[in-house]
Amino acid sequence: MTNKIKTTAPVSSVGADGEQPQTKNHTEIIANETAKNNLQDTNCPEKSGQGGGLQTVSMTELYDTVYPPRTPVVDGFLYGGTYLFVGAPKVGKSFFMGQLAYHVAMGLPLWNYPVRKGTVLYLALEDDYARLQRRLSVMFGVECADNLFFATQAKTLNEGLDGELEGFIKEHKDARLIIIDTLQKVREVGGDRYSYSYSSDYEIVTKLKAFSDKYGVCLLVVHHTRKLESEDSFDMISGTNGLLGAADGAFIMHKKKRTDNTAVMDIVGRDQPDQELTIEFDREQCIWKFQKAETELWKQPPNPLLEAINEFLTEEMQEWEGTATEFLKQLSDLQLSANVFSRRLNVVNSQLLNDYGIFYDNKRGHERKIILKRLEPKV
Fold first, then answer.
1. Model pTM above 0.85
2. DSSP code of 128?
């Protein structure tokens, strides 16, 4: 495994009709394992107090639980959860949404950020199908992605949007990204609920986040900036701080002048490093191209435990199942107790899958058995 200390941000961009950069993508996950990512039904043990009291989990139970791995949609850029994508009207948000949706559906790198292929649903609620057809054909020619779906109408949250999205995910088990363009189109309307208080803003994003967390997908919600300028670009999000407070992160796209071809994209989130990217709009092809990044991406250094597991699973032995004690007998150099070994694997199972392509689980039963399964070629 090569060292993963620091990498500079991507430096190129191509459309679908051009030559695509050849980067390694962890895109293909076998069907029954992706289903697990899309339905985050963990075996987390919870204790509730007498008479419906506070539910708690002890630190021991926390460490002994295997949670579904969190896999990026776009490595170093976009992860599972609910994110806001914010910009002024006509700044080019919808062009970028189409570009992102296509790259995820096709598994093509975005500006050399590795992309994990999956089904995409794009709710283009301010467009019609004819406009989408024209826009996408200019951007990508007529090469189609069969797993990229569009809708120009959807229910609001209080009318049953979550049910519509749930139906789509059940039909498409490998769904990875859902774009809602725009937030205003799915907000509750009518009565006192249609307000911009902190509580109502927080509540609407919390509902969306509960859905994305339940099904292990990314919800990317397009929203507008306010007219008031601010030194902090995230203060320009229309509405209250409740929107950003409930979200997993946000992207702010802004220009110095509306007629500029270049824009700055500020990125902040719980699962990815803060970034500031400068991008340029190619008016002929209608795609955004990367120019520069103000920050470097930091990646975790190699983990000796995961390196050992990667070496243990060979071309001849792609899977292994047994107790932690049995495994450690074969790798005595690790010098770990079985209990510590299992807990460390529980903590880093996402890194094991994302960086090495190895799926890990810990079966409960008379004897706890660990399962290791290589899903991708050895790195």
1. no
2. -
pLDDT tens digits for range 87-124:
888 899 999 999 999 999 999 999 989 999 999 999 99
Contact 346, 59 (CB under 8 A): no
Specify the residue for token string 């075996």.
43
Residues 6+ apart with CB under 8 A from 349: 66, 67, 69, 360
Quick check: helix, strand or coil at residue 224? strand
Tell me which amino acid residue 202 is: Y
> What tens digit of pLDDT does each residue of 275-310 get?
999 999 999 999 999 999 987 666 678 899 999 999
Ramachandran area for residue 92 (φ above 0: left; ψ -120 to 50: alpha; else beta): left
Structural domain boundaries in the chain: 31-69+300-374, 81-298
The values of phi and psi at residue 124, to 5°, are: -90, 75
Assigned CATH class of 81-298 = alpha beta
Q: Using CA atoms, how far apart are residues 300 and 287, in angstroms rounded to an integer?
A: 31
